[in-house]
Amino acid sequence: MGLIWWILPAIAAVIGLMLLFAGFGKLAKLKAGSGFFRLVFGVGFLGLAGVVAFAGLNLQTYKRLTKERYAANIKFAALPGEDNAYALDMTLSDGTKLVQADGTQPVLRGNQFEVGAQVIKFKPMANMLGYDSIYRLDYIEGRMSRRFTTTEVTEATTNGISLAENPGLDVYTLAEKQGGRFGIDADYGSATYQPMGDKFEYVVNISQDALIARPTEGTKTLIQRQKYPGYSSVSTPVDTPDTDVPPGDLEGGQ
């Protein structure tokens, strides 16, 4: 919450209290006129402090709902001689690179990827006061986009890698059982999926309740060229995606 929304009501409240005490002092000295006016202005300043404070909290609800935080950057590079096979270059929000146990980059197969997370969301009042939802990236997987039929339940395979371990106390399980006692509104899984291709790059953000994977401008052009051969963008390069990584916190969802 912006500091100004605490400072203004605090100043108004202090002035209001000073006027109230001064007014009571005048009344005690039997100075009804000056005491009455001080009481009126004191009540007015206290009312103003309340209005400003509640207005700030109200504005904060909109700001908190649209706040996004940077979670990861994902890049893909096609493996020579293999169809629908891509080396995964994933950088987490703390700068950690995702690698396998042997130190090599993971390989995902398919034409689509999905990244999922476990999310713990706080109740509206706690969220409004600055308690952002917390999350833990859970997995990333590759799969074929057209893997089911519309006529019957069918089986499909995916391939992927876990993004988290679970050492010590399992906070997510604790939230499921006792979350209501600690102001937790919900705990659930959130996932987002996008096309996977050579030189594709995505920025993954977490809002208050969901993961969002956005392609860079260069990747948008590459996706359009796959759908419509010959497509080109005048405003962005078509050969390499934009590699800029946004700052840690993003506000204002798109």
Characterise the protein shown here.
- The chain is α+β, with helices and mostly antiparallel strands and 254 residues long.
- Helix content is 33%, strand content 29%.
- The protein contains five helices and ten strands; from the N terminus they run H-H-E-E-E-E-H-E-E-H-E-E-E-H-E.
- Strands 1, 2, 3, 8, 9 and 10 form a six-stranded antiparallel beta sheet that branches.
- Helix 1 runs antiparallel to helix 2 (32-66).
- The longest helix is centred in the N-terminal third of the chain and has 35 residues, at 32-66.
- The two termini are 21 Å apart.
- Mean pLDDT is 76; it is low at 240-254.
Strand content: 25-35%
Characterize the largest beta sheet: strand count, sense, and whether it forms a barrel.
6 strands, antiparallel
Order of helices and strands: HHEEEEHEEHEEEHE
Measured as a percent range, the helix fraction is: 25-40%
CA radius of gyration? 27 Å
Chain-wise SSE layout:
Elements: H1 4-28, H2 32-66, E1 67-78, E2 85-92, E3 107-109, E4 112-122, H3 124-128, E5 134-143, E6 159-162, H4 171-178, E7 184-195, E8 201-206, E9 211-215, H5 217-227, E10 249-251
Antiparallel strand pairs: 1-2, 1-8, 1-10, 2-3, 4-5, 4-7, 5-6, 8-9
Helix pairs in contact: 1-2
Short structural summary:
With about 250 residues, the chain is an alpha+beta fold. The protein has helices spanning about 5-30, 30-65, 125-130, 170-180, 215-225, and strands at about 65-80, 85-90, 105-110, 110-120, 135-145, 160, 185-195, 200-205, 210-215, 250.
